């Protein structure tokens, strides 16, 4: 049976865990060939093993999306491994919260670099490749619609106390999405964002004693949410619960399938019905 994404080459950042991993698995299930990235090579390899075991072609391009040479390396791996580039998902990210008067320059620029500058560099590096693939399609009389999906957050739409850095970056990526939808329409590329509400991952896991932390490029960064706050947040969600990573991946998948070929410049909110925070 033909699958929705048969043979499409999909690149996903931050695919070693959480939502990115679920997106990679979903796209592979639907026939895509995958180039997956994560800061942590080990978890990227683990996702790749799962995908390979499903019988889908997969390559790993590990490293931080904030490395200046990452974008070129990432795009080159897709071309070297699979000779194409059809779907690009900017997902890698983390939170590093504090109120603005306690926020360091490093905290500000670390989050902006990861969530906004890295996607900018990746998309800039993808442009010449996409332009030449699109020219070749036109000359061959093929109609191929390529897809960019940038992952954002309701924090970027409504703000969240303690997240001036993250909310700014996530609002910025929606602006970039809308600008690029206009620039790349003539290349037959749709550019959309997906803004998540509350999705169950290590970033949002209940942490009663404030001890949950992750390692990002040698820094220990506090994550997690106070359990009472988590309960209150879930009570505000019309579906009454946080989303699963598979449900988050489903929203991204919707924008990657041929039925969405005429949807561009959109910010799809995936929040269980929550319309504000
Ligand atoms: N979980 C939520 O409720 C939620 C809500 C809104 C938006 N988001 C966004 O969804 C995306 C995925 O987050 P998640 O909740 O799955 O988190 P996660 O921590 O479970 O997964 C994120 C992955 O990105 C990787 N990563 C982080 N920095 C990186 C870097 N510099 N280079 C390469 N990889 C890097 C991490 O190693 C990790 O494997 C992020 O952009 C996040 O901001 C999440």
Number of helices: 8
- The geometry reads as globular
User: What is the C-alpha radius of gyration, as a whole number of Å?
Assistant: 18 Å
Looking at CATH, which topology would you report? Rossmann fold
User: What do the pLDDT scores average to?
Assistant: 97
> How many individual domains?
1
User: How far is the N terminus from the C terminus?
Assistant: 42 Å
Name the CATH superfamily classification.
Answer: NAD(P)-binding Rossmann-like Domain
| Poorly predicted sequence stretches spanning 5 or more consecutive residues | none
Strand order of the largest sheet: 3-2-1-4-5-6-9
Taken as a percent bin, the fraction of beta residues is 15-25%
Structural class: alpha/beta
Largest sheet: 7 strands, parallel
Instruction: Write down the CATH class.
Output: Alpha Beta
Q: SSE order in H/E notation?
A: EHEHEHEHEHHEEEHHE
CATH architecture level-2 label: 3-Layer(aba) Sandwich
Name the features.
277 residues, alpha/beta, Rossmann fold, 7-stranded parallel β-sheet, 8 helices, binds nicotinamide-adenine-dinucleotide
Task: Please provide a written account of the structure.
It contains eight helices and nine strands. With 277 residues, the chain is an alpha/beta fold. It has a single domain (9-202, 245-267), classed as Rossmann fold. The strands form two sheets. The chain has a seven-stranded parallel sheet with strand order 3-2-1-4-5-6-9, sandwiched between helices. A two-stranded antiparallel sheet has the order 7-8. The longest helix is centred in the middle third of the chain and has 36 residues, at 105-140. The model has no long low-confidence stretch (mean pLDDT 97). Residues 13-14, 16-20, 37-40, 43, 64-66, 91-94, 114, 151, 153, 196, 198-199, 201-204, 216 line the site of nicotinamide-adenine-dinucleotide.
């Amino acid at each position: 049976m033909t699958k929705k994404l048969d043979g499409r080459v999909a690149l996903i950042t931050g695919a070693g865990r959480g939502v990115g991993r679920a997106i990679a698995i979903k796209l592979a299930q639907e026939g895509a060939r995958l180039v997956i990235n994560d800061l942590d090579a080990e978890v990227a390899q683990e996702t790749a093993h799962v995908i390979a075991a499903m019988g889908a072609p997969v390559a790993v391009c590990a490293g931080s999306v904030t490395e200046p040479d990452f974008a070129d390396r990432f795009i080159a791996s897709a071309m070297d491994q699979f000779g194409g580039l059809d779907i690009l998902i900017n997902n890698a990210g983390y939170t590093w919260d504090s109120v603005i008067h306690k926020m360091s320059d490093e905290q500000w620029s670390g989050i902006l670099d990861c969530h906004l500058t890295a996607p900018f560099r990746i998309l800039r590096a993808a442009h010449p490749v996409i332009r030449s693939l699109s020219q070749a399609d036109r000359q061959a009389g093929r109609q191929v619609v390529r897809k960019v999906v940038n992952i954002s957050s309701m924090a970027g739409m409504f703000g969240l106390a303690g997240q001036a850095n993250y909310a700014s970056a996530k609002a910025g990526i929606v602006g970039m999405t809308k600008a690029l939808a206009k620039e790349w329409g003539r290349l037959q590329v749709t550019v959309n964002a997906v803004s998540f509400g509350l999705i169950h991952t290590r970033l949002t896991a209940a942490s009663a004693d404030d001890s949950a932390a992750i390692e990002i490029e040698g820094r220990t960064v506090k994550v997690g949410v106070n359990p009472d706050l988590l309960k209150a947040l879930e009570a505000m969600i019309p579906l009454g619960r946080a989303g699963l990573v598979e449900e988050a991946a489903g929203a991204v998948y919707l924008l990657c399938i041929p039925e969405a070929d005429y949807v561009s410049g959109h910010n799809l909110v995936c929040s269980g019905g929550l319309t504000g925070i």
